[in-house]
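Record Claudin, 211 aa.
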Amino acid sequence: MASGGLQLLGFVLAFLGWIGIIISTAMPQWKMASYAGDNIVPAQALYEGLWMSCAMQSTGQIQCKVYDSLLKLESSLQATRALMVAAILLGLVGVFVAVTGMKCMKCMEDDQVKKMRMAVFGGVIFIIAGLSALVATSWYGNRVARAFYDPFTPVNTRFEFGSALFIGWAAASLAILGGAFLCCSCPRRETSYPPTRGYPKNAPSTGKDYV
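=>
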């Protein structure tokens, strides 16, 4: 029962992490314009994401523009896109594999060993997906921080971390943690000992001697 509860907890955490990775990938707030220093706060907020850039007016109206050409983008942005999409696809595979190995599901009930291996394999896939998202978000965040502290970067073109980065970090951590719980949910095999042999009992004496 304990391993079943740990397995269910791991799947829920990993699934929530996968959903968070999807949300983070789709959000345009990967970095936002910084108004620190001597900047005058303008009447709009600028955001940039993996797929589009947006400007939010003071009235609340948001205007977004999708990036025109894939070939014009920086190689680092293309790599970040690829890692996040790979994390989403791996998470999708991990969901199907882990569900097949869940104890509460009726799939593969005849072979419990293979069923447990499927759950562990799903956990490994979730860990890889979480690591992929973690590398992508950390790499992107490092580029934003380096550009912010670069003295040659104009003050009016500096950006700070957006909310999508924080969601991506949290989602990647949940996917890794949930995958680890799935991998640890496999019960240990108990050491089996050969059954003890009983000693034969002496037949009760009848009190008669035979010659």
